[in-house]
Amino acid sequence: MNEVITEEKSESDTQFEPKILGFLCNWCSYAGADLAGVSRNQYPSNIRVVRLMCSGRVDPVFVMDALIKGVDGVLILGCHFGDCHYGDGNYEANINYEMLNLLLKNVNIDNRVEINWVSAAEGTYFAKIVTDFTDKIRSLGPSPMAKINTPKDLLLKMKAIKQVVYDPRVRKLVGRERKITESGNVYNEKIDKGDFILLLKDALNAEYIRNQILLHLNEEPGSVKVVSEKMKMDTTTIFEHFLVLQQRGIIDVLEIKGFSPIYTVI
Amino acid sequence: MDDDIRIGIFVCHCGTNIGGIVDVPAVTEYAKSLPHVVFTQRNLYTCSETGLNAIKNGIKDNNLNRVVVAACTPRTHEPLFRGICSEMGVNPYFFEFVNIREQCAWVHQKDKKKATEKAKDLIRMGAARAALLEALDKYQIDVKPSTLIIGGGISGMSAAQVLANQGYETIIIENDTELGGQLRFHYSLYPGELDPQKVLSIKDGLLKNPKVKIYTSSKIKNIDGYVGNFDITIQKGEEEIKFTVGTIIVATGADVLKPVGLYNYDGKKVITQKELEQLIKSGGFNHKKIVMIQCVGSRNKERPYCSSICCMTAMKNARYIKKKYPDSEIVILNRDIYTSGTYQETYYREAREMGIIFTRYNKLKPPQVGKDTVTYYNESLKENIELNYDLVVLSTPLVSYSESEELSKMLKVPLDEFGFFLEAHVKLRPVDFATDGIFVCGTCKWPANVPESISQGYAAASRVTRIISKSSFSVEGSTAWIDQDKCIACEVCLKKCSYGAIARDEEDRVVVRTVLCKGCGACSTTCPEHAIHIRHFTDDQIESEITALMEGD
Amino acid sequence: MSSENTKNVMIIGGGIAGIQSSLDLGDMGFHVDLIEQEPCIGGRMAQLDKTLPTNDCSICILAPKLSDCFRHPNIKIHSMTKVEGIAKKDRGFSVSLKRQARFVKEDLCINCGMCVAKCPTKVLDSFDMKMRKRKAIYLYYLQGVPAVMAIDKVNCLHLKNLEKNKNVCGLCQQVCPKDAIDFTEKDTIYDLETDAIIMANGSNQYDPTPLYAYGYKKYKNVITSLEYERMISASGPTQGHIKRLSDNVHPNNIAFIQCVGSRDEHTNPYCSSICCTYSTKHAILSREHDENLQSYIFYIDLRAGGKGFQKYINRAKNEYGVKYIRGKVAEIKIDEDENPILFYEDLDTFEVSSKKVGLVILACAMIPSKGSEKLAKTLGVELDRFNFVKSSIDSPVKTNVPGIFAAGSVLGPMDIPHSVINASGAAAITAEYLSKGEK
Fold first, then answer.
1. What is the pTM of this model?
2. Which of A127, A235, B217, C225 lies 20 to 30 Å (CA to CA) from residue B70?
3. What is the rounded distance in angstroms from the CA atom of residue C58 to the CA atom of residue A120?
4. What's the gap in Å between the CA of C116 and the closest CA on chain A?
């Protein structure tokens, strides 16, 4: 019989341990985490908590910031629906999360950000959520943003997403979402939530493409053809977005090379 | 200036609670290396007298202007340590608490090395945040020690009585010609045949009280301002009267539904319980065969609520009639009998013993009211029964007045789907609105009987007294403010705020009314121009924690 | 109000009503002495899992109030304390209080739990309705305030043997890092002057043992509503899992019997107001725990007059599949697997029938709390024929004694919103009463 001599695997410090960032709301999830402590419910030590007053305070910009800096997983925890200390902050947190989730699907990082609801009485449940999330991120491996040589195009896309959630257009839409779909707009018309989401998806898609274009042009002024190739998208679509950016006064033609106008960021 | 930041970090052993898992000496040593840290110390029990003195001395001897304590959860001792900072002349908002017990040592007991690493990370994050903290003050606003009570029924009057008797200026506005509300139309109150006039007699005390001003036949025209300073305009006939009050109580009451279109209601032979009471009061009652129908216009699709007082009211009237005319025949058709409470059940039993007949009907097979007979399906006999009547009395629910809508808009407070006023929290803040300084009591909030309405009036008075017994109203310093240079007045935040804290000021700018702000931060998360800053939880402060976390590698 | 003129109010009972009155009066500038017989304040609400009709987590909405009470500069909590006697003064009362020895120094205990880990004695926990064991040194409940341990004199080995001059155990004292344990502490009797009193000592749950037909205590799978409340609590004895007590197996069907100990001339003639809705709550929460669990509620009249209550019941019927059967259960028997079988008459179909379920929950009435009668007698407060504090229609929070008021379920079965309203109301009336002295 062949004896296979295997080398002893070295200490657990060679095993990947994810860095998890948690946003906890003061009144429910943070209290639930404290209860887990009082009850000595053990859970993996990977999570680092940022305490906020309300989950509604979690700006998607923070999440993007964390992901770009290399955090492997982000966990947002708020009160159960109906329990929010401030009435409906958690509903707002939820729609912010849903919006960000749609954007992150473009780069396959959506599975690294989760939102969940824990009450101040659910210490054991808190420990379970953290354990499950940590295990999930561990099995996904390190975030592609955490590597020393992060793929350039991924970095550009992540920066584009951050800009999308930073810029006014999407913030206005999400800021008004609940009012428009639940009570009505300024004309007292209630917009169907499904319709609103379609509208939001269009806006997200458009701004995502536009911000990638801007980042490419920032690196190096270029033509529609060049940018389309870099982004692996068709020139017609890219050209339409170029026009919009030009109308907005953000880019303009720098020079003409051959038959192609070269655009630059103003 | 950067050089001016002097952070002191105090790491707690908490006996062996933290010290037994986290390597506190190593963590304290590590803390020395952090930016702006000029002093570090470890203590056995930071919350003990010894520990507190150590912090005081640390602040004094090292001219600290930022204090970080790494110990248990801030939810227990944050006020204690903030107090110590204040004592030593350090603004309490320059204090930062790092949780290395409940959320570190106690939950990572199996891996001390990792728990220690986590403690270091958390302290690094806390120190980074501490460097960006700003001095804040509690915001104070003057409070006018007066109340406007909208509605002069029993609930409003009860509130007025309690407030005026304590010496507070109280203004009652009533749109009818006299005070009293619905109670004026009753001939007696259950369970003991109490004379409503006795209950209404508090009116006399109010009319005589120099602290009380009453405006009858008046309406509210406009309400501006916020807690402590509400500017009110009322209309009495041709006259417009303006004044300012500190607080408002809404006690506008409710109406008894007139079930037009139901059960052949005609107001003559088929009437409501309220109309029956008025008939009895006027002496016009002389009927012998009475059929009462419960749950008319309530507990149905249109109004899926139980009005709670109709069963007792029907019984009260039935008992009165049966006592006065022992040979009268009274049948009460019902779906469920609502007699919850200590005395109500006995009242019901006595009514049955008097010979009043209670029979159930099925919601899906409601009684049919004809010209002289009421037909209903009897479940136990499994057949239709015809009852001769000379009077049908329909027990209808209390419903909100249509004027509630206009008032709710003026006050910017919400109504529920039935038009009743919606309180801040159904369980724990039942007479408050989410908007500070405005309260609600009585049947304008939900059907209630007399003792409940009185209790609610008292409760609203209590909530008011809490505010007006002090000369000023203060809020925590961690509130929102809008940078007018960046704000484009799009009003996304204004419409989002659950507390109505954001409004247009006299110069039409969108501003946060600090006294109403709870600091939740929902407004700033979707501000398109990043113009809103949440004190003590600014974007910079939060981002510094994220940056500090990731730079530790 | 200047501090020399600060009036004192004593509030007897630290449940939600006592807490609300304390906070209101404390905010108004009065000094409040909150007297609580248990080691922590919180009362019944701390035992609840969720509150209806919103299904809010009970402790989550209660905890901020507990915290506010504890930290309030005007409120002093006297835990483990009872009222022994009272004497009327020219203005106000002098109340004699007995503070039971805690054996743990409140200002030293840091709630680290090392003592609990070492204690060898296990005792049935009354907070968890005796469904779980605690130690002889214990924290009344995890989120309790004051967050300080207490030693149960009756069960503590060391204290029991001290009387026999034997030195036994005392492990907790040995391991306490703060030296907070003091076995020499004695019960103390002290007097407190006060200007007004609010009775808020709450209510108890009816013990259905005398109702032999239901087999409570005879059949393991017949329990009371408070026991079920602890069972479905996330922090309760089964961590929120629904289990039959006979074999720890998850039931497929459960039944609720309404009006146990109420609406009955043989037990209590009154209606306990809240049971129809809280059984509905239990049925809804049970379904949320297990979507295959079928609930049956056996009732006489459905009482849902409070705000949102009727809709809550409609939701239970339509969305959670709860079956409401009108009919009082006459008798419960069990089969070989200890499954309860209920015998009843369905009053909508007029058929006599039986139903077999896995677990039966008796919705028991709220009765006056133990000691309520004694306290009322001590204070000279008149009770009604059910032994609740007597009040009148036009002055719902006043008692027959001037200067003594009442709030909460000590006045009669009451749900949480009514208790809170009542408590605020009592605070206002107390403030009015106290201001009269100055005018």
1. 0.85
2. A127
3. 9
4. 12
- Do the domains at C3-100+187-202+369-436 and C207-365 have one common CATH topology? yes
* Protein fold of C207-365: FAD/NAD(P)-binding domain (3.50.50)
**Summary mean pLDDT of chain C:** 92
How many cross-chain Cβ pairs, B to C, lie less than 8 Å apart?
188
Q: Tens of pLDDT along A101-142?
A: 999 999 999 999 999 999 887 888 999 999 999 999 999 999
- Using CB atoms, which chains have 3+ pairs under 8 A with B? A, C
Query: Between chains, do B47 and C110 touch, taking CB under 8 Å as contact?
Result: yes
Q: Enumerate the residues of chain B whose CB falls inside 8 A of the CB of residue A34.
A: 73, 75, 99, 102-103
User: Tokens 């009753």 identify what position?
Assistant: B186
Whether B153 contacts B172, CB under 8 Å: no
Give pLDDT, residue A84.
Answer: 86
**Closest approach of A200 to chain B, Cα-based (Å):** 14
Contact: B45, C51; criterion CB under 8 Å: no
The class that CATH gives domain B257-396 is alpha beta
For residue B371, count other CB atoms closer than 10 A to its CB.
7
Query: Is B2-136 assigned to CATH 3.40.50?
Result: yes
CATH class belonging to C3-100+187-202+369-436: alpha beta
Please give, rounded to a whole number of angstroms, the shortest distance from the CA of C422 to a CA of chain B.
Answer: 6
CATH placement of domain B146-253+401-471: 3.50.50.60
- pLDDT tens digits, one per residue of B241-253: 999 999 999 999 9
Domain A16-140 is found in CATH 3.40.50: yes
Inter-residue contact B119 to B100 (CB < 8 Å): yes
Q: What is the pLDDT of residue B3?
A: 64
C-alpha torsion B199→B204→B210→B214, nearest 10? 80
The string of pLDDT tens digits covering residues B292-327 is 999 999 999 999 999 999 999 999 999 999 999 999
Residues of A in Cβ contact (< 8 Å) with C235: 35, 39, 121, 123-124
User: Which residue in C has a C-alpha nearest to residue B15's C-alpha?
Assistant: C177
Tell me what ipTM this predicted complex has.
Answer: 0.93
Query: What crossing angle do the helices spanning A168-178 and A89-104 adopt, rounded to 10°?
Result: 140
A62 interfacial to chain B (CB closer than 8 Å): yes
Structure tokens at C405: 């008021």
Beta bridge partners of C223: C361
CATH of A167-265, picked from 1.10.10.10, 3.30.420.270, 1.10.3210.10, 3.30.450.20, is 1.10.10.10
